[in-house]
Design a protein that fits this description.
The chain is α/β, with parallel strands linked by helices and 725 residues long. Helices cover 49% and strands 10% of the residues. It contains 29 helices and 19 strands. The protein starts with 16 loop residues before the first helix and ends in a 6-residue tail after the last helix. The N terminus is likely disordered.
């Protein structure tokens, strides 16, 4: 094989008409692709986001729209409300669902489910802070078990304020100083009254241009702006606090000296520009994560000296030789997140005391510097308990507002979490059998619930009550009482992350790859085996309880699929209609003391008591209450007739269920479902089984494999003689 010194010619361009044609086609394709890209771009929006003007232009903008001057808390609160909300009742308590937390920014990628009460507390905190009622001087601490969405909530707040700052309603502005290339003030050549303005030096902390208005004049401006702002907004009044950061203060003072106190001349050196908050660009959004104590110090929060510039400016206390790029600096005007805040070194927590209470930070070698930002941290329970027992941290506790973020305790909401990650739009090559995500969610929720104190109520029934199901003997007041007696419900139990990991394991298992299907038993088996080496559950008693709850879930799943197979077998609509008509004729005759005409003999017979009782027993109507039930049915039909409505076989839910079960019982022997566990099935039975299987596929969402599995499993149950419905 020849490697070196190859004589293969170098291709330098089209050498034939065919190649030229291909080149033209490539050019056309490229042009189409470019057009496709450009059609998705909004040049006007880019120009809006990069607007710049004079300080006087900005004053005019504020006159037209005073909301430009809102502080960080007011902006976050308005950002949440801007996405709308809906009111509803849950556990007999008024509740609000804020659409902001459904993640409209990324098509629901970080959507929060089932935590509306906790999120209402969070929004109330922001409203109070926006009004200036004192919570704006506190650190917001989200507290809860691992995997309870604390980080996701903060991520949504950061993402949401980013998006809001890109909208006309959320626009905010900062400024740059126009000076010479060395950031110094000196006169234009040949002029003693004008300073050089050739380079722009941005405010390092993205401060509002209005902070350059001298204190003596601020209140008069604010009074004027608030006349327009206050009636239209529920976010309190506009307020301007503090002084410019040390860098801007230095430039301002130098220019005031140069222009002999002429403030208007100084403002001619100010270029106002729109800013868009961005975590990636470190503009208005900061994130701090604890690291090795030996490799970090408080300069990561408040900035550090730029040693390369000391030689230029002659002093390490010159603010032009300082990098105001700590997390608290760059998060000014927005949000600063502290991951696992209680794991921070004590020195960092001291920095947070002033940052929250006084809204100031202390950069090295400079005076206290004003900041305007939301400080939000999150932590798990062990760290919070340690904080409570540490007497040295009283000052920090006093400046903290804690909001508990529990796990979901409503089944439907928990299912939505897993549907988001394992729904058909995400998992396309493997069929997830019906109820697979449901049983995993059911087990997760059961581990989080407290044992009910009410006699005769099981934990599974409690789960159903919380999920809005009706259980005889329990009302909405009962659900409210159950909630009130279990104050820590949702603060312990299995994390959604554990469930997600085990569902993932089932999806990549050999069986799933071969059959292109996973079912509830595969996931339940993964959950059970995972308990043995669960990193957070070390207590054997807890593991034992979790395994017992897995058995409860398996039993419930068996009941669910038995019901589905029963409905699939008895799904012959004409047969149900005939059975319903027959039952109603007999009930009418029974309640009116009449005879029933026998269609075959033409003679009058007594009402068919055996038929009526066979149906009524399916829904546990005792013999002593049969008269009441039959009269209830007739009254129901009469009430419908008065409203010009027709009674159908499926109008009354209880009767419909009884009819289905009766038809299933009549059909079961005919279909010979038990024979499924046998290797020999006659053609007639097989045809009937295929019909049932197709009904499972069409009506319940199974595929060929999972429908066959369910039929086989239910058949084995009946083969064991377990005919409990």
């Amino acid at each position: 094989m020849r490697v070196f010194g190859s004589t293969r010619p170098v291709l330098r361009g089209p050498t034939s008409a065919m190649e030229g044609m291909m080149s033209d086609n490539a050019a056309r394709n490229a042009s189409d692709l470019i057009s496709l890209i450009e059609s998705r771009l909004d040049r006007q929006r880019f120009q809006d986001h990069h607007w710049s003007g004079t300080f006087w232009d900005y004053l005019d903008l504020c006159e037209q729209n005073p909301a430009l001057l809102r502080n960080a808390y007011q902006r976050v609160y308005d950002a949440i409300l801007s996405r709308g909300f809906e009111k509803y009742k849950l556990f007999k308590r008024p509740c609000v669902r804020y659409h902001f937390f459904s993640d409209p920014f990324d098509s629901g990628a970080d959507a929060i489910f089932g935590l509306d009460f906790a999120l209402m507390q969070l929004v109330d905190f922001f409203r109070s802070a926006a009004e200036g009622y004192g919570t704006d001087k506190r650190i917001l601490l989200l507290h809860g078990p691992v995997g309870s969405s604390k980080s996701t909530i903060v991520r949504l707040l950061k993402k949401g304020i980013e998006h809001y700052s890109r909208t006309p309603e959320g626009a905010l502005y900062s400024f740059s100083w126009l000076l010479d290339s060395n950031c110094e003030v000196h006169p234009v050549e040949g002029s003693s009254r004008e300073a050089v303005r050739t380079h722009a030096f941005p405010s390092p902390m993205h401060e509002d241009p209005m902070i350059l208005v001298p204190r003596e004049a601020r209140q008069a401006l604010l009074d004027r702006f608030n006349q327009k702002f206050a009636p239209q907004h529920h976010g309190g009044r506009l307020r301007i606090y503090g002084e410019p950061d040390p860098f801007s203060r230095k430039i301002f003072d130098d220019l005031m000296t140069f222009y002999q106190g002429d403030w208007r001349k100084v403002m001619d050196h100010v270029q106002v520009r729109r800013v868009v908050l961005s975590e990636k660009d470190r503009v208005g959004i900061g994130t701090f994560q604890p690291k090795d104590e030996k490799n970090q110090d408080s300069t990561e929060l408040t900035g550090d000296i730029n040693y390369r510039k000391i030689a230029m400016y002659g002093s390490d206390s010159d603010p032009r030789a300082f990098n105001f790029d700590g997390e608290l600096n760059i998060a000014n005007r927005g949000i600063c997140e502290f991951i696992e805040v209680l794991k921070l070194d004590v020195a960092f927590l001291y920095d947070l005391l002033g940052a929250s209470q006084e809204h100031t930070i202390k950069p090295k070698k400079f005076a206290q510097t004003y900041i305007d930002e939301v400080i939000i941290g999150h932590t798990n329970e062990p760290e919070y308990k340690r904080l409570q027992s540490n007497e040295m941290m009283e000052a920090f506790r006093d400046r903290t507002i804690k909001i508990d973020i529990p796990y979901n305790i409503r089944l439907d909401d928990e299912i939505k979490i897993y549907q988001k990650d394992f729904g058909p739009e995400r998992i396309r090559n493997i069929h997830i059998a019906p109820h697979t995500l449901e049983v995993a969610a059911m087990w997760a929720v059961l581990t989080r619930l407290s044992e009910p104190k009410k006699a005769g109520l099981t934990l599974l029934q409690k789960l159903k009550l919380y999920n809005g199901k009706n259980i005889p003997g329990f009302t909405e007041d009962s659900v409210k009482e159950l909630k009130e007696e279990a104050t820590r419900e949702g603060m312990e139990g299995i994390s959604p992350r554990f469930i997600q990991d085990k569902i993932s394991n089932a999806l990549v298992s050999r069986q799933a790859v071969e059959e292109q299907t996973i079912n509830p038993f595969m996931v339940l088996n993964e959950l059970e085996s995972g308990l043995s080496h669960h990193s957070l559950i070390t207590d054997e008693e807890t593991k034992k309880r979790c395994r017992e709850l897995l058995s409860v879930v398996k039993e419930e799943y068996e009941d669910i699929i038995k019901g589905e197979v029963q409905r699939a077998i008895s799904a012959d609509e004409e047969a149900i209609k005939r059975l319903c008509t027959n039952y109603i004729e007999n009930v009418r005759a029974y309640t009116q003391k009449e005879k029933v005409v026998n269609k075959y003999t033409g003679k009058d017979d007594e009402p068919d008591e055996r038929l009526m009782r066979a149906i009524e027993e399916k829904i546990d109507i005792p013999d002593s209450r049969k008269d009441d039930f039959r009269q209830e049915i007739m009254n129901y039909i009469g009430a419908l007739a008065l409203d010009n409505k027709k009674f159908e076989y499926n109008t009354n839910a209880r009767l419909y269920k009884a009819l289905e079960l009766k038809l299933f019982e009549d059909s079961r022997d005919t279909i010979k479902l038990k024979n499924l566990v046998s290797s020999v099935v006659d053609d007639e039975t097989q045809q009937k089984i295929d019909v049932v299987k197709q009904r499972l596929i069409k009506n319940f969402g199974y595929n060929e494999v999972s429908a066959t599995d369910v039929l086989n499993y239910v058949a084995s149950i009946f083969a064991r003689g377990d005919s409990k419905h």
